[in-house]
Amino acid sequence: MSNEFPHRMSRRTLVAGAAGVAATLAAPRFAIAQEKVTLRMASFMPPAGFLNQAIVIPFLDRVVADSKGTLEYKFFPGGTLGRAPTEQLKLVQDGAADIAIVIPSYTPGAFESYDVTQLPGVAANTKAASVGAWRAFEAGLLPVPEKVKVLGLVTTASNVLHTKKPTPTIAALAGQKVRAAGALQMGALEKLGGTAVGNIRGPEIAEALSRNLLDGVLMDWIGIKEFRVDRTTPNHIDTDFGRLATMLPMNAAKYASLPEAAKAAFTKHGGVAYAEFGGKAFDDAVGEYRANYLREGGHTAGTFPAADQARIKAAFEVLVADWVKAEPGRDKILEAFRKGAAEVR
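Given the sequence above, the corresponding structure tokens read:
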């Protein structure tokens, strides 16, 4: 089965501006349908992945619907145009794809400012985090990759703690090996007494849990289903360990060549509108997934007790302060992020 999923709108017919014998004697006037631009959308995620189905495809469908017949797209999921998550930005920059899902933190040393979304306990929900990230971006505080036009940013849902055995208190984390992604997640976990384990790819987590190489994982409620982590981690603690920023860049030359109606459609549905829509989609899905697990039975969810909350707050505040001090200008990034996140109620 092809991995291409074209989305097309009906073509306009040519309408003659003159008729009869006169048409052979004088140049007729035509309202000629403009040739549609077909955009190639690349995703390293599987076709049924949440970000693909719930956010990116609906976004592109709305853009196409408002493009006045100038756009269509073909969707290439599952790494069809390039399998490695780290190469998605290059696909767009080189023109192998027109648009792709890019994870800024997968490009070490270049886009570490986007890690502001990974700071634990800073944003109230994913919609707020996504809007905060976009406000920091449009203020010029987050870097723009070369040769691309950034259409939008959205963060993943909050990473929370999922463990094989009950972990009712922070003290119960001691000695548990928990998979964490990136320095900030690892730092947050270790400040609470856990043992952070990195360098385990998403598809390998379920096996590591079943072989007792891991005792738990930091992941969002959607990811535990997609990566089959839910089968071995029935205990869930809803402490916010931060969110991962995702970017939707388009090749800059391709964007510049688009008809004005197409550009206007991207402007209308991109930017803060994309952040709001995508963030809400994640928030709604988290509520649904969490409720389903608890309704089906075999799973428990909650928070660490009140006696632990002061320690968690203090540990995360230190982590945030250390991140800000590590690079000049990060205080402004955090301020813009928090201000943008506070817009969302």
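The two ends are 44 Å apart (CA to CA). Try to locate this feature in the token string yourself.
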